[in-house]
Amino acid sequence: MAVNAGRLLARLEELSRIGDTGDGGCARLALSDEDRAGRDLVVTWMRDLGLDVQIDGIGNVIALREGREPGAPVMCGSHIDTVATGGRYDGNLGVLAGLEVIETLVSAGVTPRRAMAVAFFTDEEGARFAPDMLGSLVYAGGMAVEEAYDIVGIDGARLGDELARVGYLGSLPCPGLVPHAYVELHIEQGPVLEAHGEVIGAVTGVQGISWQELRLGGQFNHAGTTPMAFRHDAGLAAASVAVAARRLATELGGDQVATVGKLDLRPDLVNVVAGLATLTVDLRNTDGDLLARAERRMAAEVDRIASEEGVSVERRQLARFDPVTFDERIVHLVETTAREHGHSVRRLPSGAGHDAQMLARMCPAGMVFVPSVGGISHNPAELTTPEHIEAGANVLLDVLVHLAEDDVVA
Ligand code: HGY
Ligand code: MN
Ligand code: MN
Fold first, then answer.
1. Which of these, 227, 314, 364, 378, has the minimum number of CB atoms within 10 Å of its CB?
2. CA–CA separation, 180 vs 114, rounded Å?
3. Last residue of a domain, one of 263, 296, 321
């Protein structure tokens, strides 16, 4: 049995036209009108396939096909919300390949022992409403849905209001049904598989993530009349934090990464010394202790910079997730399945966060990676070749079917 690659590629293309940014990418920020349109399209495909489609209290969509015997389903899926400079494959591939796997089984008249479900989770990106992986975090019981409703986005919108506005405030309870296992196909979004000429990644886990928002309070002043020694320039302090973050990651080396991705200066005018700077610091490391060390070092740097410039600091933690290790049985199953398909395969950790890291809180979870051309992602140029898409979807098919034949009483 093999997936219908043409159907999968056509659906990826059709979904990418929703929120099309005209440069090859698409933008569907969580719970935006574009996200709603993308959701509606995928739900239509799910319903056309005859799946039992349900929506939970945080807007996660779970489409189920019964198995030969009753029991917890094998679940796959990912997300269809994107960042503002989104590509066509981040998240979308995992959802549409999961749907394709089920459609392949339906077309072949094959019904595995266990039920199978394909899901897309709300606000995986966390770009509009932090933290990231929010929908799957709530699904796994890591945050109460009522707390999630009150999250305010970068545009001032309240998550619960947006969920109702787009019509995806569902009635299925959170936390959700515990799957028998969860497997997610995703693009690597990094350079490793391509650099080593491998086709499949057997993902060993996800690195730890720390997102912090800093508000630096200086003094609005005249850009022409204020002597340099008299300034409390929040803009300079913010720029110094960005330089310090890069220096810290370089010094720590290894898997440490650091990013200042969001920076807002007020009043954001050419002739006013910035009195307020709001910025984010994203720190990640595969090692939990090293991530904590990086956080401590970064905090000390921010305090030093603020003290030297005479600005105040307010901190808000936007996301904090420890590193996650995936289920060895599933990692091994991905590896052996890839080899059976004749593909080169490598074990590697994920640099990006994924819904699988939240599902791993409730069941055995794992991921299948396929290469990203040039290691580019969160960029309209994001690309994975049709051959690699087909290879990843067929590995996903066999991994899911294998798990779906697990004894139901297990
Ligand atoms: O931030 C991340 O790693 C993911 O794209 N949400
Ligand atoms: Mn993703
Ligand atoms: Mn992403």
1. 227
2. 9
3. 321
162 CB near ligand 1 (under 6 Å): no
Structural domain including 236 reads 208-321
Global pTM?
0.97
Average pLDDT rounded to a whole number, residues 259-286: 98
CB 332 within 8 A of CB 188: no
Residue nearest to atom 6 of ligand 1 (CA): 125
List the CATH number of the domain containing 270.
3.30.70.360
Confidence of residue 108 (pLDDT cuts 50, 70, 90): very high
Å from CA of 354 to ligand 1 middle: 7
Reported as a pLDDT band with limits 50, 70 and 90, residue 162 is very high
Pair (172, 305) in one structural domain: no
**If you search the block for the tokens 């220096």, which residue do you land on?**
247
91 touches ligand 1 (CB under 6 Å): no
Closest ligand 1 atom to Cα of 133:
6
pLDDT greater than 60 at residue 114? yes
Q: 300: left (phi > 0), else alpha (psi -120 to 50), else beta?
A: alpha
Overall residue count recorded for the chain in this entry: 410
Ligand 1 centroid to residue 408 C-alpha, Å: 34
